[in-house]
Specification:
This protein is an alpha+beta fold. It is 17% helix and 57% strand. The longest helix is centred in the last third of the chain and has 14 residues, at 59-72. The two termini are 16 Å apart.
Length: 82
């Protein structure tokens, strides 16, 4: 996702819990590692691609990105910046 001319790397996930007493329940979440600095520029020991990211540590930018992500992914209220 583009933000202020930079690409934001983020993951969207869901968790589902089932209990015999209460049925099924789930939640959605979004994890934001940061801005993409270098995409798939190397490989780890397992041979998987590794990218370099820049943390998003200012609250103003986090709030802007959080609003954009919630608009893009309605129902996903949990947004965590790593």
């Amino acid at each position: 996702m583009n933000h202020r001319g930079k690409e934001v790397l983020y993951l969207v996930g869901t968790a589902v819990i089932e209990a015999s007493c209460c049925g099924t329940w789930g939640c959605g979440f979004i994890k934001v590692p940061g801005y993409i600095r270098e995409w798939k520029k190397g490989r780890n020991e397992a041979g998987r691609p590794v990218s370099k990211v820049e943390r998003i540590d200012t609250q103003d930018r986090q709030r802007e990105i959080q609003d954009l992500l919630r608009e893009r992914h309605p129902g996903f209220s949990q947004v965590e910046f790593l």
